[in-house]
Design a protein that fits this description.
Layout lengths: L12 E2 L2 E2 H9 L15 H9 L20 H10 L5 E4 L9 H14 L3 E6 L9 E3 L5 E3 L19 E10 H7 L8 E4 L11 H12 L1
Parallel strand pairs: 4-8
Antiparallel strand pairs: 1-2, 3-7, 4-7, 5-6
Length: 214
């Protein structure tokens, strides 16, 4: 409830419904998910979620609701309080354009590959081969060792992917043991950029409104 970049983000109205509804509606279509629950400390978000037929079995502890809390900790808290499930799937409301095909595709990839976890990815706007750090004297330090400048043609750069925050799937017992989603055994589920919008700023929200209006 205490979102700083976009205050009251989960409840902001987009396309005639609160932002959180976009995620709830797609999750409800899944062929695999059999229980949908919300973890929140915010009374208003909880009330809206329940009005959308989302279960809220408990209120999230305040200690797990701050800006500095890693996103996986409330998921661990949920899995510990609701035992007995083979897989845990996390769907953040801030990525509203993911579809049920993305949700089920990520679950299927996790199961079919035998991996303990699967996360959704997308192609970044800029390749990391074009990224730099600035040293104290403003000299540019490449993040990745690069070929000669003349060889840095966009179409020749290796494919790269970035986490888009849309879908996280994990074997529940593995998740409780490792307390993280990412490992050397994790597999990635690619999603197109147009479904990977992650709303962190008012500009992101305005762009989402623009997309919905079109």
């Amino acid at each position: 409830g205490g979102s700083k970049g976009v205050p009251r983000k989960n409840l902001r109205n987009v396309g005639g419904k609160p932002l959180i509804a976009w995620t709830i509606e797609q999750a409800a279509k899944s062929a695999y998910l059999d229980r949908f629950v919300l973890s929140s400390e915010d009374e208003e978000i909880i009330a809206v979620a329940r009005s959308l037929n989302l279960e809220v079995p408990f209120v999230r502890p305040e200690a797990l609701a701050g800006d500095n809390v890693p996103a996986y900790l409330p998921v661990i808290d949920m899995a510990e309080k609701l035992p007995g499930y083979d897989y845990t799937v996390t769907l953040q409301p801030s990525v509203p354009l993911r579809t049920v095909e993305d949700i089920d595709g990520c679950i299927e990839l996790c199961i079919d590959s035998g991996a303990p976890s699967c996360v959704s990815l997308t192609v970044p706007d800029k390749s990391p081969y074009w990224m730099y750090q600035l040293e104290k004297n403003n000299r540019m330090l490449p993040l990745i060792e690069q070929p000669d400048e003349g060889e840095l043609q966009r179409q020749d750069l290796p494919d790269s992917y970035v986490l888009n925050g849309a879908v996280y799937v994990a074997d529940t017992q593995w998740l409780l043991l490792n307390r993280k989603y990412l490992s050397p055994q994790t597999v990635g589920y690619p999603m197109p950029q147009e479904r990977s919008l992650d709303i962190d700023t008012e500009t992101d929200l305005a762009f989402f409104n623009f997309l919905v209006s079109k």
